[in-house]
């Protein structure tokens, strides 16, 4: 039986302040580091090991992976980083707190963004300091590829090619694969694996630093999935 482990990063410094991060490169809080360590301990206790790991290019996911690898003595495991596993891009809402967003746009509009699959947040402009096209980690992306804003539908659209073209092969070959990413990039993967409806994917709750284990057939269709909660 093939097993795939998904892990959302731990708490960030902005989570403590209620701010939306999106593609902003926010680090883990001390609590987030602790959460990552606890996730590693749960995995180790259950006998998990990994041959390869995938993560985003954002430090909160990368550091979560580092902590897990260190705690499990798996620092040698090959790691692949891709912007395609980044969190959903929240456009002009990035860096704002929930209270600021509600004050500016109203509770009804915020509820729409939180609960729908295909309604993007307000976009950035190219002259905004938050525009990812000025960041060297995205230098290989074209102007059409660098997002100004996304909805979950857009996130799914960029995650799935990476899953099918790159990530699925080692899983199908029986490698022990760990994916450390973000709430919405993991929602995209789970939507594909479980053949979820758009609405179900939008409502999916993925807690920070709790390993999610998929047991898969050779076709990569899941028999089941479950959390390794403490």
Number of contiguous helices: 8
**Stretches where pLDDT falls below 50 for ≥5 residues?**
none
Major β-sheet strand ordering: 3-2-4-1-5-6
Q: What sequence of helices (H) and strands (E) makes up the elements?
A: EHHEHEHHHEHHEE
Per DSSP E runs of 2 or more residues, the count of β-strands stands at 6
CATH classification class: Alpha Beta
Beta-strand content bin: 5-15%
**Fraction of helical residues:** 25-40%
The CATH topology, please? Rossmann fold
What is the name of the CATH superfamily? Phosphoglycerate mutase-like
Q: Could you give the distance between the termini?
A: 24 Å
Instruction: Tell me the CATH architecture.
Output: 3-Layer(aba) Sandwich
Structural class: alpha/beta
Oligomeric state of the chains present here:
single chain
Summarize the main sheet. 6 strands, mixed
The 3D shape can be described as globular
Question: In a nutshell, what does this entry contain?
Answer:
The chain has 230 residues and is an alpha/beta fold.
